[in-house]
Amino acid sequence: MSIAIVLLSGGIDSATALYWALKQGFTVQAVTYNHRARPSRERQAALSIARRAGVNHVVAELPFLQTAADIIKENPTAFGGINVPEGYIPTRNLIFYALATYFAEIYGANYIIGGHLETDSIGFSDATPRFFMGIERLINDTKMGIGSDHSDGIHLLMPFLEKSKSDVVRMARELGVPIELTWSCYYDRAEQCGECESCLEREDALEKAGFEE
To answer: Which run of H or E residues covers position 210?
Structure first.
């Protein structure tokens, strides 16, 4: 049975990617990255989802990473004055997938799975099909493969790259994903704010999919 590293943030997309991987028959090793601006509720969501799914879970601390909003607070001239999305983290996916390869080496995984959507590539150049194909080539050009069988290489699987968020919500329902455990809000509050970009995207997708929390 193939082992897969699944990047689990605690949101709907990554949770659905995890359940999709289990449905495909993968043995899943979930990996979550913590950084300074990440809400504690999102961290707890990742822990709860992994526990509910019954998969192994490792949390990597990345205290040096900051979102664009926090970077600009400390340095108003950052990004050359160009407007960037508030949740943007410079080279985030390059860092995340390099570290995922690290864990793939450790756990003997031949697959790395992410929950990126079709719309992600519109605002983020490190979430395009071209980017992921390039990362996969780089991984297989540089990996050692010591202590595990990587004769067939390490493959990046992005099952939702041609799907909308409402498509993923529908899939989540079919797969039995505990959507009520997921967290999408940018802020660390008792309840999701319903006003930030991520919350609005979540609410729109849930409505289009005919799902009520």
So the answer is: none
User: What domains can you pick out in the chain, each with its CATH number?
Assistant: 3-208 (3.40.50.620)
- The two tokens of residue 110 are 């031949």
Q: What is the DSSP letter of 81?
A: G
> How many CB atoms lie under 10 A from the CB of residue 180?
8
Q: Which residue has the tokens 């099909």?
A: 129
pTM of the model: 0.89
pLDDT tens for the chain, 213 residues long, are 699 999 999 999 999 999 999 999 999 999 999 988 788 999 999 999 999 999 999 999 999 998 888 888 888 889 887 888 777 888 999 999 999 999 999 999 999 999 999 988 887 788 899 999 999 999 888 765 554 455 578 999 999 999 999 999 999 999 999 999 999 998 888 899 998 888 999 999 999 988 766
Altogether, the residues listed in the chain come to a count of 213
